[in-house]
Amino acid sequence: MSRQLLFQLLALPAKAAVNAYTWSTLPFYTLYQKPFSKLRLAKNFGVISTVDPKTGRRVYSRPTPPDIDHPYLKYQVFNDIIPTLDRNREVLGIRDVISEVPAVDEQTGEPVIIDGKPLVKVQLADDFRYLKVGEVLDRVEAIAKGLKENLGVNPGDHVMIYADNSAEWFYSCLALLQINAVMVTLFSTLNDSGVVFGINHSDAKFVITSKRLLPKINRLSGQFEKVKSIVYIDENGKNDDGNVEQLKAKGLEVVSLEQLAENGSKLPKMDFPSPNPDDTMLIMYTSGTTGVHLLLACSAANNRNYFSGNPKGVIISYRNFSAELHSLLRMDLENDKICFSSVFAGYLPQAHLFGLVMNLGLFISDSKVREQRQECRICKETIIFCCLQFFIVCFVNRLPFAAPSLCSTLVLLIFRGRWAICG
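^ thats the sequence. predicted structure below, dont judge the formating
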């Protein structure tokens, strides 16, 4: 019996349960959600079909209704709206880490390692502290000045962000946009070959990373082709285990993001010219085609690395990014501001396009973004976006008989069987 057939047979009970639920509840949801009315409205959207004279591609668009208005809809470059924001609006919630203790296996006494990373028990502050737009922008400007003056980052330079989700990731993103450098992103969960490939393939000269990833950067640094400077996010004063000095001994310039911000805060104000709409804004190395998202939970549960293949780089211009953000803003405004006036839990990785678009869209709207380091009962978010297996893992972990192996098997069956549960 082939493995694929075995997976399909094991998935049959779950498929049957989902199909039974779907068909039994279909009449209720048909009356409650009224899809027929939405289809009727869809026919009245006034879609316009045109041909782009430059590319010859057919473009479908529709005029913005007169009652749909958002300041950003007037711009084609994200940077241009930043000066118009209300500096006194609370925008970013951070729950500080009080302490981190390495998790130890009770049977062996050895540190618990999952996906090549040590598992730690984190004690967090009881509540969030909020930063205003002005505080965020002042921090971003200091980092931008430090990057430009201390490291020589100029417009058009490729700068890799290979780091865990954090407020510092967001600051770094905005700082690179302010300089008009090309932001390049990699998932912090990529294996060694993916990291080396992404950094070299993108021609990155600078790398911004988390302190916990410094050992990997140090180990792989001999394979980097063009990297000359490394900026690390100092996480609660953690010991770098000599990796900083070892990297410096190899001829690389190494500095903490905190030091860059401190240096930049002492520099006079700089003028950063706004980019053109067709300038490259970012190169995003997505991993959807290599199985990172689909098998992340399985890899963590089994302490094995299922990731394979090279990440795929997607080039996105300021105009591309604005078109995506315009669409989301318009959709949101047409649906009574579901997203962009909400409290948003930042679970999605910012190295993922949707996570980045949502965070930047919320930043320029009337929302609050609460960084990933949180519990939902404290966050009290009004909207959350995350990948399917997050819900599956949460659901399975609540079962009294649940075990990591069960979680791994369920996720694997669902995605190997090429079907998914849609809520």
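Confidence is low (pLDDT under 50) at residues 288-308, 372-379, 401-423.
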